[in-house]
Amino acid sequence: MSFKEWFQEYTATDADQLPLDSSIIQVANSDDLDADFIEQRIRESAPGAPITKGFCSKCQVLFDNWPTLGRSSMREHDSKPDQDEDGWEYAVARDCSTFELEASTRAGCKFCAFLLQSLKDGKILDTFRKIETRLYHLDEYAMPSLSVQNWGANPSQLLWLNFPGKVCTHCNNGIASSINIDSCFLPASANCYDQQLDTLDIATNWLSTCAESHELCKSSDGTLPTRLISLAGEQPQLVLTSEFPKRPQYATLSHSWGSSNTIKLTSLNLDSFMKAIPIEALPTTFKDAIKITRRLGIDFLWIDSLCIIQDSEDDWQRESALMSSVYGGSTITIAASSSRDSNEGCFLMPPDFNGGLRARISDGGRQRVQDFRNQRAYDLSTFETHLGTRAWALQEKMLPPRTIHFSNRGAFWECRTTIASQHLPDGFPKQLISPLVRRKGKFEWLWPQIVRLYSAANLTFEKDKLPALSGIARVGYNETRDQYLAGLWRGQIEEQLCWRRLNQAPLKRPSWRAPTWSWASIDGGVGWRALQKGILETKYIDVLDASTTIYSHDPFGQVTGGIIRLACSTMAAADSLVFSKSSDEPEAKDVANIVLRAKNQEQECLIQIDCLDDFCQEDNGPIHLLPLLSGRTGLGQREKGPEGWLDMVDEMMIQGIVLRATGIERGEFSRIGCFNFYKNRSFGQEVENEERRCNWTRPKLVSIEHPALVERVVAYEGQDNFVSQKLNIESYNLILNIQVKMSSLIDISHDDFAFTTAKAQAHLTLLRMFCGVYDLFGTIHPLAEMIIKRPYTPTEAEANTNHYLRIAHYRYTLYLDLLVSIRHTPKETWPAPQWDVALMMHTHMLSPVKFANDIASNPRYSSLAGLLDIPLMALQYKLQNIDHLDDRADRQRWQAKYKGIPFDVMQIHAITGQKNIPPRMVLNGMYSRKRFKFPMPAPFSLDLSEAVKRQISFARKITATYPYDPVPNAMLLDSQQRYMKFMNLIRLNATQMPVPALDIDLLWHTHQLTPSNYLPWCNHHLGRPIDHDDTIGQGELGTGLAQTISAWQAVYSEDYLNPSPNPSSHATTPAQTTSASQPSFPPQTGPSVPTQQTPANSSQPSTQASPSRQPIAQPTLTTADKAPPPGLTLNQLNLWNYDVDRQEKHEMAAYRLHQRRSQLAVYDNQLAALGPRPTSLMKRLTDPSTRKTLEANRNTVISQIQQDIKVQDGFRCAWGRGRWPLLVQARGWGYITPTKGEFYREPQASTSLDFPIYAATWYDQNELGYYDYVSGGRGGGSAIEGGGLPVGGGCRRYIILPQVVEEVDEY
């Protein structure tokens, strides 16, 4: 391209479209600069007027006439942003060629020097000069210009230099985005540093100010280094810190050794250095450090090469393990940031350099001071210096409370409170302190940034990869107490195993220094995606065990081996690894193709390998892909439709690692790479067609391990854990939709001491009793109303309930004291708690973690820690023998210890022929509110009275789910399988606690009532203890359930609330039982799960669809649909016909509700298009009448929806009440007497249940615990309540009432 063609294109292109990497700029960048021509232009541009007060005449004129932008002249330095002002006004302040800037810099202008340095910092000075040179030779004398823009409505501004003849309109456009200058408003009285202070005087002032007033910057009191350099005398000398009577103040030096032969402490010169260190033998950096330390008033200095015996491995290992306390305990660290070796020194700033300044300006006649600084001043003075590229320097930067960086940019102060430079010594108005130094936030949040910086840094000795980070790791351990594993932390190991190379090609694998699952095993920068809520939430592995073998004194230093044992849900086997030099992946850096085979099909995938050596290990064991995490990435892209851009489409990803079998032993692997598989991949661009949006992009991977070493990534295949499976790969979609297929957790039914279905039966019976106990607390004797001569009010009932709950809490603590006094006796002889005490104890144990902590941490009860479980079977025995229970021994123990405190709060009587469910209970008058005074009970970690009220709500709904007693064992076994799946879901989705259905709740509660077994079980199988959350908030019900439904569907491919018939392995399946005498029963044909309903107090029904299914077309049941399967008994046929009839009515009602909700959404969209309702009178008068019509129609539809919901509610309740007796009869549990609405069954008679009864969905987000039941009615006041207590033998008769099922004894 000729100069003229280039000029025409350059002139025609808008400045906002000319970033540094544009093709037009790159053409100019290819030119070579003529040094003589540049020098000539600089001399020609020399300022004609002398420099006064540090500025050239052009800069002084600019400051005296600073452009007024919007309301900039009215803002003070402490002004708050005006919400009514947009800001961002901009203007061109002055022309300034780069030649003129350099000429003025040489003459002494501080502002020109600062602008010139900004171009150098952005590495664009040569680009500007090449464009200026081209324009000069074309006789076009356009010059660069300086632009100023308000930073919104804040008291600060942004500056940038434009390309010659161009003006960017915003700081984020064109070349402006490459120049980062900001300027803050300061008071007119602010110091402008007209007289520059000596650098070390500034440093002394920084240190004294920090030591006196910064609370965050206190030095730690850790272990002192063994030796320090004393500077008290004329000649420095080594001293032993063990001889100091008190802790000394000392400085530390952070420096780069370089390749020069630096003076070192050795075993040979140790004695002589203890007497004197020859000052003339010290390199310049050490001499400068001594000078700085003395000027700061500090008598001791620590330099690694002079304070650690360099030829003693033992001394080096011991002292390097103290790095966190050596630097953390220092008064200050002196960093020789720009020195490449020890000979270059600390004072390297060029004479014309300017890294920031203050100037007095006049804006619209108002005077103020503004400072000017590069936004990247911090990084340029710290991380991006030569020392910042050295690995050891990162912890030398993070650990000290304060550091002075001496670089070619001058002195830069950094502590945990402020940062400053010698150019702006009072500090930067905007706090730019690194979170790594300030340690703001949790350590685990900082670790990804630490590893990203550290891994990209350089080391002289490869073996130092872990030791050079050990000081920071020790700080992390002290904060988190987490297990450290060669650069990874046990608490975040799943995400950290997904590390990958960043922005570089693979290198040769270094000598072994870490397991291949650790990023420390390779050279070069690495990183991983830190997990957060909603991002990559699905886990495919469970870490069973992890450990490393340390080399020496330092548990955070070198290692000699490491192992991680994993239980995985799935693995994909691959046949070959092929090198690929090109890829359409934007982040690909020398990736590889891997071939997966399944069902005689092949699929090539892209992976990222860790090291080049991994290509060369042919035929060295099969290769596997192990997925670790999946989910949303937090990115997305928009699809372009015919009417414009549509909603954002979330980017989805599965990430994992690539393993190669070591061949040493079965199940042992080494890592050779990693992969990321994407769906809806976002490249920062919008999508313009459906095809691209739906296609999954080609995946990428990373790699793992050295086969000859003792470290493993094990796919555990034990019976109690996940089974490793080969992934069935047929296409990308199958690769990218990996489903977790759980084999099993440990079968809880085998853990007889902790849990059995018999205990579940006993627990259900106990729940019925507790409901009766709680109800009794709110009542008084019938004579009381005669005495008070007025009705008993709900307020009085509530007060009565609270009184007896406090008594129960008090008696619970007495019961614990009683157990403490007899704890050395056999546990089976301990007294079972009374009913009110059992209610409290039961509630407390349903939070096993809190319960265990309460018992163990209370000196009064700590001797019972790990011993207490709720005695379910003993309590059931008490119920079953309530007529003739002999509890004299328990009474005697109680009365011997607690004289004057009655043993019973209530007396319980089972009267033959009475319909008391539970049997009649009478409160003991001795415990009445007026007669019994008791001290406040000992507090626990939760309010037991309130917890009881919540648990009773659960108990009512659980018993309503099982309205018969005993429950068929097959049903409990089926629910137990679902409970195991539920606990597995907790393990796989640790960040989101799933919501239990009621059948799961019964099993979960029962398991929790044995905390001595439950908590170890949770720790072993789930990795953490789990409490049942009985305090779930109103707003969380719908969201939590929707997430659980989605997670369950993803993991098990079944509907959580309305699963298809799937009899447990313990029951006989329909296919196995089909015969003429015992026909099979069809799957349950109850109603489709209804859409999520609107809270009763909501003014507007929800328009969101339920996560369950809903009809979208008018339903029609065909004759074939209604036809019953062959072989049904008469009772089963009646149930079939009943269900078909109700199903048809329900689907039609649901269809009408769906249609009206759809119409409501249409009205809402139309109203939204009209905008908000006008507020002023005139605008309302002109508001289109369409709005009124739409609002009227919308209100009508809302009213119809609310009515439909009420109809649906009543319909479902009627369904449950009508279906239950038919189900009992169809199952063979009893026989209906049609005229009386009664049925009979023999005691314990039950048959296997072909399908379970499950809670269908949450009914109402507004009230905790309202459920719909496909076959149980609605929970709450109008529910079918649980059906009674087993109180003796004989035939049982059940009476079917409209709302209650009661059980009566007949003898």
Automatic annotation (TrEMBL):
Record field: compositional bias (Polar residues) = 1086-1111
Where would I find the Heterokaryon incompatibility domain in this sequence?
250-396
Question: Which Pfam families is this protein grouped with?
Answer: GRDP-like (PF07173), HET (PF06985)
Q: Which InterPro entries match?
A: GRDP-like (IPR009836), HET (IPR010730)
Residue ranges under compositional bias (Low complexity)? Answer: 1063-1079
Q: Please give the residue ranges the record annotates as the region Disordered.
A: 1056-1111
Quote the PANTHER family the UniProt record gives: DOMAIN PROTEIN, PUTATIVE-RELATED, HETEROKARYON INCOMPATIBILITY DOMAIN-CONTAINING PROTEIN
Query: What is the protein name given in its UniProt record?
Result: Heterokaryon incompatibility domain-containing protein
